[in-house]
Amino acid sequence: MDVLNWIGIGLLAVLALGAAGHALLNKSDSRSALGWVGVCLTFPLAGPILYILFGVNRVRRSASRMRREIDAISGEKHPPAAPLSFAVINPTVLFRSFQRLERVGRNILETELTGGNCVEPLVNGDEAYPLMLQAIETSQKSIYLTTYIFDTDATGRAFIEALARAEARGVEVRVLIDGVGEKYSWPLASRLLRQKGVSTALFIPPALFPPNLHMNMRNHRKILVVDGILAFTGGMNISQKHVLDAKPLWPVTDMHFIVRGPVVSQLQDTFVDDWLFTTRERIHPPVTAAEPAGDCLCRTVIDGPNLHEDNLKTLITGIVSAAQSSIKIMTPYFLPPGTFLSALQSARLRGVNVEVILPARNNLPFVHWATNHILEEMLRSGITVAFQPAPFCHTKLMLVDGCYVHLGSANMDNRSLRLNFELTLEVLDRHLADRLTRHFDTVMAGSRPVTRHELKCRSLPARLRDAFFWLFSPYL
After folding, report:
1. What is the domain count for the chain?
2. Where residue 85 falls among pLDDT bands split at 50, 70, 90?
3. For 58-76, how does the pLDDT look when each residue is reduced to its tens digit (9 = 90+)?
């Protein structure tokens, strides 16, 4: 019996030390590593079990495994490198302010800016959807559409019918919908599209048999590329909620962007890569010459749990650190990593004007509560925070120094910066930055500034609630 006890103790010791060692070697945050090491060594049975269930990053591991499988099939590395062409910009010829900010993305992403682009903002579905539908109706060669949510309301049905008509007249149509995001609406968009003969795929749909429950590994990208020459991207899903003229029950404001020029091919490459990732089918878009369309300098930012580097998080933190005069952020969800918060505070302390606009009433209350917990520290460093009144604003923007625009699908939270597949655009253009700054300032003028007194006057239960949900901010 004594021998069995010693064997049991030995096995527990091996299990505890193994789990603690794994945490020590694989956790990038020292506090997280210390916490898991302590739990595993203090509770030699329960600790390792908890660590295996909640501490191991299955999202990154699973995504990397699937990516390796696809790479083996296609014989290519992903994402594909942007080909050199006349559109690639020599950074030495840029304005000095452009050079400072451009250098951050070039060093992190190891890609160059692409010139000759036109990027124009479209406010709400009222402006975006008619142009998107018109592009689908007039397409001649190909339509590639990726979205997180594809509602089957009046707006969604209009897109389904337009895509079906394009398919019927011989256009190559591919639609990729996130496997969880499409569940927000019934009947399912994928079912209606397939009934119409449109080639549709779901990105990692949840399933019980065989088990596939990757709820966190979501494709949050929004891309529509038509004929390889026109694209739409941003943060807007396909939903009647974004059409304010239709007076939806739960209106949501947002901003999307129409893109022309050589950078469109990079958005198309991202879709091709995602389609291969999802279906294992390699599609070959029609070869289209990239024609210059404007003066915007652009760089695509592709991020996801399949990448070993946290490109997006590192990039936006670096841009904030390089800012010299102003940082303006508009986002629906604001629970960024501590490194980004520190960079914002440091920027303000060295004299940069930092402004953040958040929704006064969030569609996810627990995110709003968790955000409240970090606002007082931001205000203490001099950052301006304002709550935008209803309707709920889903716009994602970062404007820096009056010349840099960061737009796309990513929110300022750990889910976007760590768990989701995201796509954003860096745009260096004073005209676009000025136009979006005017929009930002107009929204700020109609928003309510948050004060330290207001936050300090929260009741004890409210502060405890906010702090409690803040503990889960890496997963919200």
Report:
1. 3
2. very low
3. 555 555 565 566 666 555 5
* CB-based contacts of 268, cutoff 8 Å, min separation 6: 144, 225, 228, 231, 285
Residue 103 φ/ψ, nearest 5 degrees:
-60, -30
Helices 338-349 and 365-380 pack at an angle, to 10 degrees, of 30
Report which of 330, 326, 449, 317 is spatially closest to residue 387, judged by C-alpha positions.
449
- The per-residue pLDDT of the chain, averaged, comes to 86
Both 274 and 136 in one domain: the answer is yes
In a domain, 341, yes or no: yes
Looking at the fold, whether 276 and 408 belong to one and the same domain comes out as no
Residue type, 422: E
DSSP class of 220? -
**Whole-number pLDDT of residue 233:** 97
Asked if the bond preceding 365 is cis, omega within 30° of 0, the reply is no
Q: Do 44 and 68 reside in the same domain of the chain?
A: no
The pLDDT of residue 299 is 95
How many Å apart are CA 205 and CA 218, to the nearest integer? Answer: 9
Tell me the pLDDT tens digit for each residue of 100-137.
Answer: 898 999 999 988 899 999 999 999 999 999 999 999 99
| CATH number of the domain to which 376 belongs | 3.30.870.10
- Cα–Cα–Cα angle for 224, 227, 229, nearest 5°? 80
User: pTM here?
Assistant: 0.85
Question: What's the Cα-to-Cα distance from 397 to each of 114, 150, 219, 357, rounded to whole Å?
Answer: 20, 22, 19, 10
User: What DSSP assignment string belongs to 421-464?
Assistant: BEEEEEEE-HHHHHHHHHHHHHHHHTSEEP-HHHHHTS-HHHHH
Q: Alpha-carbon torsion 274, 364, 346, 94, what sign? A: positive
Could you tell me which residues come within 8 angstroms of residue 98 by beta carbon, excluding any fewer than 6 positions away?
A: 297, 403, 428
* Contact present, 294 and 263 (Cβ < 8 Å): no
In a domain, 300, yes or no: no
Q: How many CB atoms lie within 10 A of CB 132?
A: 24
Domain with 270, as residue range(s), is 62-84+113-295
237 shares its domain with 257:
yes
Name the pairing type of β-strands 326-330 and 384-388: unpaired
Helices 460-470/365-380 angle, 10° precision: 100
